[in-house]
Structure formats: C-alpha cells, structure tokens
Amino acid sequence: MAIDENKRFIVLRVLNIPGVMERISSIFARRGINIDTITVGVINGKSSQISLTFDLPEDKFENIVKVLEKNPCVLEVKIGSLESDVVREAFVAVLRDCDANVSDYIRIRYRARTTLLSESRLLVELLADPRMVNEFKEEFSDRIESFSRSGVMIHTLNHYRKLKA
Amino acid sequence: MEVFSMVSGARLIVDKLRENRVKTVFGIPGGAVLPLFDELYKAGDIEFILTRHEQGATHMADGYARATGKAGVVIVTSGPGATNLATGIANAYLDSSPVISMAGQVPTFLIGYDAFQEANIFSMMIGLTKMNFLPRNLEELNSALENAFKIALSGRPGPVHIDIPRDVQLMEGDPKNNIFSYSYNPPIPSDEEIFLASRMIADGERPVILAGGGVIMSGASSELVALAELLNAPVVTTLMGKGSIPEDHPLSLGCVGMHGKLSAIRAVQESDVLIAVGARFSDRTTGKLSGFAPGAKKIHIDIDRSEIGKLLKPDIGIVGDAKYVLSKLYSNLVKMVQKGKAGRWGEKLKQLKKESEFLYDYDAVPIKPSTVVRVLNDYVTPSDFVTTEVGQCQMYASLHFLAKRPRQFISSGGLGTMGFGLPAAIGVKAAFREQRVFDIAGDGSFFMTCNQLPVSVDYNLPIIVVVLNNYFLGMVRQWQELFYDRRYIAVDLKGKADIAKVSEGFGARAFKVSRVGELKEALQIAVKQNETTVIDVIVEREDNVFPMVPPAATLDHVITGR
C-alpha cells in the first residue's frame, strides 16, 4: 500500500470544555489546511481525545505541532503514523447485487461483519486501516449503494512526542 | 459541618479582580453586564474608567499592561460592546500583551436565538485571543476567572476573553471546584544547548544582538546590556524591543527593519553571528527573509517554542526565558572571551553610526516631522512614557526618539493599529499618575480615537499629544509616491478639521504650531501644566520617512532618500 509522505496523523488530549473543537480547527482554518478526518472521544470528565488527519509538508508540520502544543486547551500532542501505530476507521456500506459468496469473500478478505438485508442487498461493517477501507471502496465501487465512514481514530503505540506534563 | 458561602457570579468576578490586585478597569456598561456593574458600585474600591468607545478601552488596558507588566482589564456589554473589542484585542494578541476582557452576554437560555445585542463573541474571540471562555454556570465562571490571569500572564503573555451571560452574573452559589487548572512550566533549556550557542558566539568576529519585545517582557535588559558589553556586540532592536537597551548606549544602534536606522541595518547585514532574543522575525523587521543577515550564523532564543523555525530556520534555537538564557550565555562567555574584545567591530561601529546620521534642517518651515521628534527628546525624562500612533509618525518616533529604558516606548507593532497611541497613553497614565505620558501622533491616527480625549480630561489623566499634522495619511501617500508613481488616491485629509479646536472642544488645552520656537514654547507649557494637551504641529506635507526598505526587498536595498 502506498504511503503519502504528506499525510499527517495527530492525537490531541484536550480539555473537555465547550469551544475546544472550534479553537483547534481554527488553527488549521486560518492556515488554509483542510482537515481530512477528525474524531473525538471523551477520556474522562476533564479531558477528551481528538484524532486528526490532514495533508501537510514536513517543513510546515513542525510549526503546526508547536502551535497546538502551546494552546491552553491542549494537554498533550502525539504524532502517529500508519506504520507504527494503530490507525483505524469504521466503514459501513450497503451493497447491491451480492449473494452469499460475495458476503463470505468480504468477511474473509476484509475481516468485515456482513448481514444480508434481502436477497441481494448486503450490509457491510468494517473496522480497518483507512487504506484498506479505500481498497474496499474501490473493489466494490459498482455495487456500493450507500456508505458512511467515521474518520480516522489513532491509537499511538510508541512513536509519539509528549511535550506537556 | 460544611460551611457554605453564597456569592453571585457578579460578586465572584469582583472578588477575583481584587485577588489579582486589579485597581483600575476600563470599559462601557450596557444591559447584559449591569449586574456586574452594580457589584462594582457596591465594591467601591475598583476604579472604573468610562471610555467613549470599547476599542479605546482595550487600548487603554493594553497601554496599562505594557507599562506595568500586569494584566489590563476591560469590561463591556454584549453585542456591539463586545464586537468593538476586536481591534484592541487583536492588537494585544499580536504584541503579546496581557489584556483580560470581559463582556456581558445575553442570558444562557437566549444564546443562539438572536436576542437583542447578541453576537457570537465566543467564535469571534477564538482567533484573537490566547484563550477565551463562555461560562454557563458558577463553577465554569470560577474556573474561567481562576485561569484567565494565569494564562494571560504566563509564558508568552496574551489576551484572554470571558463572555459572561447575564444569568450567570446573577446566579448564586458556592463555586469551589475548578473545571480545570491551567499550569505552565517555563521551558528550561539544557546547559548543552546554551554551551553550543556560547561557542558559536565566541567564534564570531562580528556578533550582533537583535533584541525584541521578549527581552522587555522578561525583564532582561540588564542581562542584555551586560552580554553586549562583554562581547562588544552592537544591539539592534525590533520596534517592540525599543528601549531594551538605552538608546544612548554606545552599543545601541536603534531599530532594524523597513524603516530601521542605517547603522542597525548595516550591522545586521555585515554580522557573522546574529543572536535574536525574544524577537519573531516579522517581515517589517527582516525585509525579504532570504537576504536577512546573509553571512551570519543565527541563534534564536524565544520562550514560545512555535516561534523557533516558524519563519527563519536558525542554526541554534533555544526555547527559554530571555533573562535566564542571556544570563547563562553571559556566565559561559565570560570564561571564553576577553571582555570587550570578542566583537572585532573596532572603529566600524562608530563609522556606521556616523553614516546613519542625516543632516537636519531645524529651521525649515513648515517644520520637518523628524525635527519635532528630535525636539521632543529634550522634554521627555527617562521616567516619562511615549506612546505612538501608526504610520509615518510611528516611524519618525522609532527613528528619532531615544528610549532610555524598557517599557518607556509603547507602540502597536504587530497589528499596526492607527488610533492606538492616544487611548494607550491614557491607560499608561492611569498606572503611573506621577509620570508624564506623550503620544506621538499623526493627523490620520488622531482622528481615529480622539473621541477618547474627554476620558483623559474627565478622570484627570492628563496626556500630551503631539500631532505631526501633514493633512495626509502620510505613510500610504509615501508608498503611492514611491511605488505607485505619485498616483495619490484616498490619502488627502484636506485639513479643514481643526485639531486644536476639536481638542479644545473636548476639554483639552491645545496649541497649533508650525515653527521650532513655537513647538518648544508649547511643550514648555505642556510639561509644566498638569492638563491634557494637544499640540497640533503643522509639518511639511510630503516629507518621507527614510531610510526605507521597499516591501519584499532585502535590507541591502535600503533607500536613504529621494
């Protein structure tokens, strides 16, 4: 699978107070950086975790990380990568013209959960590396009736920087 | 038995202002903030200065903050009261000034329903502040207040805004918990980093120190001067760093940049080691960055990690407090170099200084704006303050006013806000009642905030405004002359409005002068009398500020005259 060198994966631990998402996203907006995916989960009453993916060249990435680090809402910044961390996206699709064979194939090939909704309509639930999600979308592009994707969640294992206490 | 002490949100705010030793607040009341004003009335020990527009209130708080190093506080109402804060808060943000603004807001149950005087101030303030809050209950209000002062004043200072819904001001309770507690750990650079920088400095022959506003905020002026003297290194400053070294010191070369002193520009361009402290390499300071100090190894010291490498990639970047790093550099270098011998500038410095002195025609009529500022130097004592407006007047002040100490010179650097100087001067005066405060203004800037003159008069906060009046938006006219072939458009202010009469109408004493002798007489009276004074100086209309580095050119392309 090809790796885009400018693709960035960041995990922020932030204060769980109103307006934090806007404060974070405005840092990107004013620099004209498009956030590809953003997911949020509550860690505890006081903090939440935000996973962000976006495209940015290396020379500009360093500054964005520092700007995020100094924001009073941000408690911690971790930098993730497809190679050394767990990067996952949930993907749900309804496919047409499918039979039990296709369903079996998807279950085995993509480790997805499948449910036949009718004779030929198949519900597919997938949790996978976003590259695999893209592969699935491409392979079944002519059969996908509708789909939703969650955006990327990143769980860093070792490759991270911790700059704030 | 648990003891409950019930307080209202409004009372909580007043208590926190007291806790943080806030004696003076600037602003304007309105419907959504009346419960808080009523509490201020009951408190009686916090002076409220009623301004004539909220923008002016922010500049006053900003001036107060810059002169003292403490937080300046603004309180206004919701909607237009709060939107009028925008310019002043943005100004404080770009110059790292600890202003705390509070605005009333419609009650929580009306937020989002387009109630009377409701605006989305929360979103507006996100891009203009270091942090902002919209507390919806007493706990959140308590937390916002607890953290606002810490955030505004710690590390690289900056403004914090709190939107306070009317019902939250009226809520009663015993808010003990904090939603969060902001903690700031100052970055401590390693000894090794500082040693490497020391080695690089010791190896240089033509070191130059570029001092920015960070030196002033950190209180590092004596460390700066000590290091400069040890190295025999000239010090150039940014506009924000003006005064970090006394400008009559033999090693001070003045401001560098688009309208920098020739000596400062030449020294930077000829340097082989550049030590930038608390400066952020703004385009107005560096010119085209690729040609800035082209032969120099660069060391960048800043407390804000995100400034290192943001624009200029230094050879060594040190994240730390200016005072700490400069004193560490000194203790390393004192063992490495012979005092005063490291920088081999020799006679070159004197030559550079000589080259940058122009001939001044003191007797020209109308008077030259540069002459006005040079005359003013004789009337400003080291304990006095000088604020400026923005444009040509600001650059004449930067070039010709000699700042003797940190915080003496107060100007809008980053945002370049015309109309900053007059209210900022009132804010400075509110903090230092015994000192004189001068505002060096242009006529364009004067008319932007002259409506604040009555504040100076009403509250007995006398300031001296010296207007360099050329009936033009002078700096724009200068650009149109130099870069648009004199195609003047929208720069002529005609001169039909009489600044002296307007000022008198506002209750100030006023003079209209056009000769050096008259100017001196007016200044003589102004400094003796303790009253708000405006001196309208009719200056040469089409005088240009030189030196000038054309926009997007390197410092080497400096123009020295027509």
General description of the model:
The complex is a heterodimer of chains A (165) and B (562). Chain A folds into 2 domains: 7-80, 2-Layer Sandwich (Alpha-Beta Plaits); 87-150, ACT-like. Chain A, domain 2 (Alpha-Beta Plaits). Chain A is built from 4 helices and 8 strands. Chain A has helices at residues 20-29, 58-70, 100-110, 130-139; strands spanning 7-15, 35-42, 47-55, 74-80, 86-95, 113-116, 122-128, 144-155. In chain A, a hairpin with a 4-residue loop joins strand 2 (35-42) and strand 3. Chain A starts with 6 loop residues before the first strand and ends in a 10-residue tail after the last strand. The mean pLDDT of chain A is 92. By secondary structure, chain B is α/β, with parallel strands linked by helices. The A-B interface holds A 15, 17-19, 22-23, 26, 30, 46, 62-63, 66-67, 69-73, 163, 165 and B 122-123, 126-127, 130-134, 136, 140, 147, 151, 155-156, 179-180, 182-183, 185, 304-306, 308-310.
Notable characteristics:
heterodimer; A: 165 residues; alpha+beta; Alpha-Beta Plaits; 4-stranded antiparallel beta sheet; 4 helices; 27% helix; B: 562 residues; alpha/beta; Rossmann fold; 6-stranded parallel beta sheet; globular
